[in-house]
């Protein structure tokens, strides 16, 4: 019966039933949606028994907190500021788990105490912090537990800090110091789509990635002798090794990545389609025997855009497996070199609008661009040269110069010379 006592028609009854079914259907969809986007867990490591005093072993608390968040489907483990978590055993960050600390003075480590720093992991150098696909570490300082502030040199640096065991791993706003290797990506794992951003390093070798098929991003990564800086008893000393080592890395980019006081800068081996933008190395010492950029093996399509090398023995060395493989340099600056600005042993180097400057004290023995192989080719357009014996020096191979090249002739005996 209707409100007026009239009998409802068959169509009205069917319409009411259809509307009720639609309401039930949409309600069930809404419930299903809510269950699929349940909020990620956020826990504090203190709730799992962490001491945070830098002495007691917090490995169990660290791993229990990570396991709890992982079991809940993912989320964040928070570390407290001004606390040091000693990890004597193996810590692990599982997939879809973020370990996040408080970013307080993490980027500038000059103090003789850790108390004024933010969240700090004191890692046993005999262990590694393992990170799996989809995990993240943010706002944390990772320090070798056996290295004390204001070290004289890197002789005590040992072990590996972070091991990337998978893809889509994020490390950002962190400092990693006192290790032989800061971040390591082993060959057994494809580190594709990993993101390394806003990091400070002081290690013998800062980044060592040996397998990434695509999408690796390194941005605003700076290496310096942080552990020595500020101590007047120990002048800044060289860190032996390579600041950045990339092997079998493809389709990646590095932006504003720089190292000072490293023996070698960028070692690029068997890599292709990689872009380096505003990256560089500054040895800042005399009598250097290091190399700024060492590009070798089965590499090709390597682009140095606005990149630098300073105070090195040789700025850029290119030795490619194939003579048709190439390195492109655009708007680069190589200065105060001790031997060559660019030396090509095999392959092709195409240079455009760059600036090269030798060591003014020994310029009569220096050569800017050196083709030093039968299958070596260097082409250059619109670059400038200062303090070199020869702008172009061909031992063998090919050197192609442009009529637009400018040079300070008072410091060049010749623009082009061939043995």
Low-pLDDT residue intervals, each spanning 5 or more residues: 1-5, 33-38, 105-112
- The secondary structure category is mainly beta
Number of helices: 2
Mean pLDDT: 85
The gross shape turns out to be: elongated
Query: Which sheet architecture does the biggest sheet show?
Result: 34 strands, parallel
Distance between the termini: 110 Å
Helix content: under 10%
According to DSSP, the number of beta strands is: 34
The share of residues in extended strands comes to over 45%
**Rg result:** 28 Å
Question: What does this molecule look like?
Answer:
The chain has two helices and 34 strands. The N terminus is likely disordered. It has a 34-stranded parallel sheet that branches.
Write the layout of secondary structure elements.
Elements (H helix, E strand, L loop, with lengths): L9 H27 L4 E4 L8 E5 L1 H13 L3 E4 L5 E4 L4 E2 L3 E4 L19 E4 L5 E4 L3 E3 L2 E4 L15 E6 L4 E8 L3 E5 L9 E8 L2 E5 L7 E7 L15 E9 L2 E11 L1 E8 L2 E6 L2 E3 L8 E7 L2 E6 L2 E3 L3 E7 L5 E5 L2 E5 L2 E13 L2 E4 L8 E15 L2 E3 L3 E11 L5 E2 L6 E5 L1
Parallel strand pairs: 1-3, 2-4, 3-6, 4-7, 5-8, 6-9, 7-10, 8-11, 9-12, 10-12, 11-13, 12-14, 13-15, 14-16, 15-17, 16-18, 17-19, 18-20, 18-21, 19-22, 20-23, 21-24, 22-25, 23-26, 24-27, 25-28, 26-28, 27-29, 28-30, 29-31, 30-32, 31-33, 32-34
Short description:
With 419 residues, the chain is mainly beta.
